[in-house]
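#data-curation
PF: Archiving a pair of folding outputs for the training set. Convention for this channel: one message per protein, sequence first, structure tokens after, nothing in between. First:
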Amino acid sequence: MANYLNIREAAEYLRISPHTLYKLVERSEVPAAKVGGSWRLSPAALDEFLDGKKSSPARSPELLIVEADETVRRELASIAMSRGARPQLASGTEDALLLLSAGWAPDLILYGMPDDVQVAFDFMSQVRAVAGDTRVAAVVSPERASDLKDLMVHGWLIVLPAPVERPEMVNLIANL
């Protein structure tokens, strides 16, 4: 039978603070299982985690946030940075296309949809022309999501309900 470690023991094993380990476990960066309200960690899984960290450091995902509302733009950037992503901010499609035309290819474009769906289609067509297969997550109200079904069929558009919530954004970034 394998011996499992509690948070304190695992933190000692990793030579980090229990607080840091709690954060890693909560973000699912370290393999753990919750048993009866307490976390349990396998020393073998911790060794695999460490070996993976040593051999291939994770690259921070790059994100382009295209949103007209400065408050929303800053909040999305804050969420992205809290999850280790590197966001670039664009107040509109022109700024975004300038960044993309310069050869920068982010892992994801988070696009706050304007009221005019045709403007969104035009922007996404231009993104396709300069950024290839870069995924686009459109933040759009649920009642307008059906307007985007043609784009979703092609598999390069993810629709997030507006206003975007922190857990949705965290999950999106975690899957990059």
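PF: Second:
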Amino acid sequence: MDYLLQLAASPTAWVALATLIVMEIVLGIDNLIFISILTNKLPEQHRAKARRIGISMALVLRLGLLSTIAFIVQLTAPVFEVLGQAFSWKDMILIAGGLFLVWKATTEIHHSMDPEPEEKASVSNTVTIGFAAAIGQILMLDLVFSIDSIITAVGMTEHLPIMIIAVVTSVIVMLVAAEPLAKFINDNPTVVMLALGFLIMIGMTLIAEGFGAHVPKGYVYAAMAFSAVIECLNIARRNRHKRLLAARQ
């Protein structure tokens, strides 16, 4: 109890908490974009449930990893070396997650450009398989993003309460933002292509970091923010054009 009171009275702890919350929310955006795109492919009545399950699993994984900080720190220790390049478990997880993101985003872009005819199947069978597949893929990426998130938290502060508060806050923000973001993506088909492009960029960043090439996250998110602003301007222009046409008619 004394430890928590001392922590609450420390300005440094509050600065670390605020910084870490911002970092965790930014890192959670990647996770949320993937969840939104994937759940939008499910039947409408299952989307909200899948999003809640996906984000809840992200919270469980993050808190579970926080309880094993000693193990998480060991993930950064080199396991083997290839041509002078050392690889840790963290590196291998990031590379695997990055490859999965690139593959998934590329596949989704292909389906968007050249959609396959829907197979004739019963509604219940399609929903069950689609829901299970979506949850499985969300769980896999939750694990990758959770490890990245917790290692970032461990690198920024040594105080476990600060880490827990920052992680829980970021997941709550994800939970609140999930529905509006998914609806926005679903209502604007061009945003889907942009978001898939983001996922490819994030995947390549994870792969590069897995091979030891540090990519400043600020550059990545600045590029994403710039692209998002341009797309918002395009959406506003299209909406204005539609209103003008409607007024003329």
